[in-house]
Amino acid sequence: MQRITEQELKFYRKYPELVRAVGDKQSIYRVVLVAVFVAGFDLVASSKAVKFGLVESPGAAMAEMVIDLIFEMGVALWGGVATTVLLQSYVEKKYKEGRRYQQEIMKRLTGEPAQNQKKDNRKSGGKSD
């Protein structure tokens, strides 16, 4: 079990709406995606800053290769975040469509036996076996 400090309790008393966000998957995903995006941004920005600082230095070819690799890692992180966001919204849309379809099937199936019994009773003249 995780220990909760008095300071944390004080914070959640002040902001009770955040208690639900603690275990909310969407909030966790959002925080992780923002962190990865910021890390990618930092990599791209720092690689460009270092590249402009080392233009005329000895060993610039090796440094430029490392800088380009750092830049590419940052861009790859951005691409990963973009792909995740797009896939996440697509999967959520498909999940909601599937749930509606499932609920419609369940609604029709639960109403079906009563309708079949009425048809069977009409066929047999209202007599039950």
- Measured as a percent range, the helix fraction is over 70%
Sheet/helix structural class: mainly alpha
Strand content: under 5%
> Roughly how many Å is the radius of gyration?
29 Å
> Counting H and I runs of at least 4 residues, what is the number of helices?
4
Q: Give the H and E element order.
A: HHHH
Tally of strands: 0
Nearest-integer average pLDDT: 76
- Enumerate the spans where pLDDT stays under 50 for 5 or more consecutive residues: none
Largest sheet: none
Task: Give the distance, in angstroms, between the N- and C-terminal Cα atoms.
Answer: 60 Å
- Global morphology: flat
Short key terms for the protein model shown above:
129 residues, mainly alpha, 4 helices
Can you walk me through this structure?
The protein has 129 residues and is mainly α. The protein has a domain at 6-80. It has four helices and no strands.
Describe the secondary-structure layout.
Layout: H1 6-14, H2 17-22, H3 25-53, H4 60-123
Helix pairs in contact: 3-4
In short:
The protein is an all-alpha fold and 129 residues long. It has a domain of 75 residues.
